[in-house]
Amino acid sequence: MSGMMFALALFGCTDDGSACQRLAANEQAYESRVECMAAQNSALDSPAADMADYPSVFAQCMTRAQLSRLGRGTIDLRKTALAFADASD
Question: Quick count: other Cβ atoms within 10 Å of Cβ 39?
């Protein structure tokens, strides 16, 4: 165990992923990336995702440091090196 915590974050986005905002209400912490990734589909089916006022909702497991670097402003997911899951996956 590396001691690294992973966060599962939801993002509300335009359909093309060019303008996204973090949905802070649903960020959860996991002890491994595997545990976090196993929770992605549930997070995409959650009330927080269903009630988001965005055409698309994406989920991503990342370290706290990665999440911090993304910040709270508008994010263009097309320009990140991360692979995001959406409800169609």
Answer: 16
Query: Domain limits at 22?
Result: 6-77
Structure-block tokens of residue 81:
């090196």
Residue 31 near residue 63 (C-beta atoms within 8 A) = no
Kind plus residue range of the DSSP H or E element containing 16: none
The pTM of the full predicted model, rounded to 2 decimals, is: 0.77
Say if 16 falls within a structural domain: yes
Is residue 86 in a domain? no
Residue 64 lies in a domain: yes
Look at residue 28 and tell me if it is in a domain.
yes
Residues 7 and 54: their CA atoms lie apart, in Å, by: 21
Structural domain tally of the chain?
1
Q: Is the model's pLDDT at 84 over the cut of 60?
A: yes
Q: What is the pLDDT of residues 12-53, one digit of tens each?
A: 999 888 899 988 655 788 999 899 989 988 889 988 888 889
